[in-house]
Write a structure and sequence with these properties.
four-stranded mixed beta sheet, Rossmann fold, alpha/beta, binds guanosine-5'-monophosphate, about 45% helix, globular, 7 helices, binds adenosine-5'-diphosphate
């Protein structure tokens, strides 16, 4: 029988570099990793592709899936903005022996870790500081000033959950952070 794959949970306040780090590790292709594409009712940002970045759903579609029990977990991460991990994104892949990466918020991450125990490893990616996080969000240019302020507020709240994660990696020098995350993943997968 094929050994089951494992789950790798990555959480970080928005703008901490999670997408950059995950994208780089997946592009290197040295680990057997597949990305769990979350569902959300938020609108796509420029460059985001439906079914690749997220499954972009209407409010109605999202609530129908909740009612059907299609989510392993879901959260209202920002007012009116829902994000959730679909059971269909992880079950078959893990059964087929692939490892699955979940890029999800702190509550979702802690929830999935509780459900999957030793079959999951959780990593929190932290910013070097709050002012630096604000700079990165501004430089990314994908949110309004009001949304940036909302995300920075939420970042301060999310950072209080760091002790509940298996590992914390500070994303100061990008290449160093990528190396640290890749090493943690590699040890866990081989473990
Ligand atoms: P997230 O997916 O966590 O919201 P992103 O990967 O989109 O964050 O990163 C936010 C912005 O910060 C992007 O413009 C990215 O290029 C930049 N960035 C990521 N890591 C670093 C770093 N170590 N130093 C400086 N800028 C970074
Ligand atoms: P963004 O809008 O910047 O893509 O994501 C906002 C937040 O939603 C991030 O913290 C991201 O990790 C989180 N998120 C994305 N997908 C999921 C998911 O499936 N479940 C949960 N709980 N959070 C998610």
């Amino acid at each position: 029988m094929t050994p089951k794959g494992k789950l790798i949970i990555i959480s970080a306040p928005s703008g901490c570099g999670k997408s950059t780090i995950i994208g780089d590790i997946m592009d290197r292709g040295t680990l057997d990793l597949q990305f769990s594409v979350s569902a959300t009712n938020r609108k796509p940002r420029p460059g985001e592709v439906d079914g690749v970045s997220y499954h972009f759903l209407t409010d109605q579609q999202f609530h129908d899936l909740i009612a059907e029990g299609a989510f392993v977990e879901y959260e209202q991460v920002y007012p009116g903005r829902y994000y959730g991990t679909l059971r269909s994104e992880i079950q078959n892949r893990v059964d087929a022996g692939h490892n699955v990466i979940l890029d999800i918020d702190v509550k979702g991450g802690i929830n999935v870790k509780k459900q999957f125990g030793d079959d999951a490893m959780s990593i929190f990616i932290a910013p070097p500081s709050i002012p630096e996080l604000r700079n990165r969000l501004k430089a990314r240019g994908s949110e309004s000033d009001e949304e940036i302020a909302q995300r920075v507020d939420r970042a301060e709240y999310e950072m209080t959950f760091q002790p509940e994660y298996d590992h914390v990696v500070v994303n100061d020098m990008l290449q160093e952070a990528i190396g640290n995350v890749e090493n943690l993943m590699s040890s866990f997968i081989k473990g």
